[in-house]
Design brief:
- This protein is α/β, with parallel strands linked by helices.
- Helices cover 36% and strands 21% of the residues.
- An eight-stranded mixed β-sheet has the order 1-4-3-2-5-6-8-7, sandwiched between helices.
- The chain is globular and about 40 Å long.
Length: 228
């Protein structure tokens, strides 16, 4: 374990917009005491809340926060040294509508109350190719049902990926579950951005470091938006 991780963990602890409840307690069923408090205690407004689950470095969380100052954004990941970069950028840019939460996604309903969240982004999630039942792939219907615990009726779930496997498995699972598709595309930049409203186009055109590499290699980016 490198010194760099220790430094990032320490800096995360100094950020008032980073939350790292004891994961062991959460696993044991102890309520972290955060449900229903994000608007009042964290963001101090009643703006809609969007989650990026499996946020990695937090590039998309920060990018969305820049484009939509009238919304609040929470990046969630188990690896704090990864989202440290997004947390630090948010502080450097004085973005008031960004927070980060360190936890495992399977416990995400422990942190948000019923109807507390309005939108979810799942960006370039791990495809988990051996996960036949979808219990590890956070884009699977198994997880969609978890997210429904805190999503308002009519909320959106956005899946953006370079993985053909994630796109194919997700699409198949969503169709079987009877979810409502709003948009479905195998080529975000080749065709989708030309037929969606400007606000969604702005969100789709946020390009992360790794996405830029994949695009330079000729990969296509896939997207599904569901209404829950």
């Amino acid at each position: 374990m490198g010194k760099d991780k220790f430094g990032k963990w320490a800096e995360n602890e100094s950020f008032n917009h980073v939350f790292e409840p004891c994961l062991q307690e959460v696993v044991q069923g102890v309520d972290p005491g955060m449900k229903g408090k994000w608007a009042k205690d964290v963001f101090k407004n009643d703006h809609p809340i969007t989650l990026e689950l499996g946020c990695g470095k937090g590039e998309y969380t920060v990018g969305l926060a820049r484009k939509y100052p009238e919304r609040n954004f929470v990046g969630v990941d188990i690896k704090g040294h990864r989202f440290w970069r997004g947390a630090k950028t948010a502080k450097e840019e004085s973005l008031p509508n960004v927070a980060f939460l360190r936890t495992r996604i399977e416990f995400i309903k422990m942190y948000f109350a019923t109807d507390e969240v309005s939108e979810v982004w799942l960006t370039f999630s791990d495809p988990q190719p051996k996960d036949e039942k979808g219990t590890k792939r956070i884009t699977s219907p198994v997880y969609i049902e978890i997210y429904k615990n805190f999503l308002k009726p009519g909320s959106l779930i956005n899946v953006k990926t370079d993985s053909v496997l994630i796109y194919d498995l997700s699409r198949k699972g969503y169709l079987e579950a009877g979810y409502k598709f709003v948009y479905d595309s195998q080529d975000v930049y080749g065709e989708l951005v030309h037929r969606v409203p400007q606000d969604l186009r702005d969100a789709l055109e946020i390009v992360t470091y790794y996405e830029m590499r994949w695009l330079s290699e000729g990969k296509k980016i896939h997207f599904i938006q569901l209404e829950i």
